[in-house]
């Protein structure tokens, strides 16, 4: 098999590698619970109900 532009295949592979790394990024994010999150939710709900 003879390719007309073999450098095109190399460029395509070079572009595909970062895309594949991005798609198969299996890092798991951990939830970090802060002590004041419930307090902030209450403030947001109070402001929402007060019409602010």
Automatic annotation (TrEMBL):
Q: Does the keyword Transmembrane helix apply?
A: yes
UniProt cross-references to InterPro entries, sorted A to Z: Aerotolerance_reg_N, Double_TM_dom
**UniProtKB keywords:** Membrane, Transmembrane, Transmembrane helix
Q: Where is the Aerotolerance regulator N-terminal domain?
A: 1-48
Query: What Pfam families does the record point to?
Result: BatA
Q: Where are the transmembrane segments?
A: 6-26
Query: Does Repeat appear among the keywords?
Result: no
Mind telling me what this protein is named?
Aerotolerance regulator N-terminal domain-containing protein
Instruction: Write down the species.
Output: Mucilaginibacter humi
């Amino acid at each position: 098999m003879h390719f007309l532009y073999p450098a095109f295949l190399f460029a395509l592979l070079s572009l595909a590698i970062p895309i594949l790394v991005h798609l198969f990024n299996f890092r798991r994010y951990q939830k970090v619970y802060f002590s004041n999150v419930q307090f902030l939710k209450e403030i947001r709900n109070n402001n929402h109900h007060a019409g602010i």
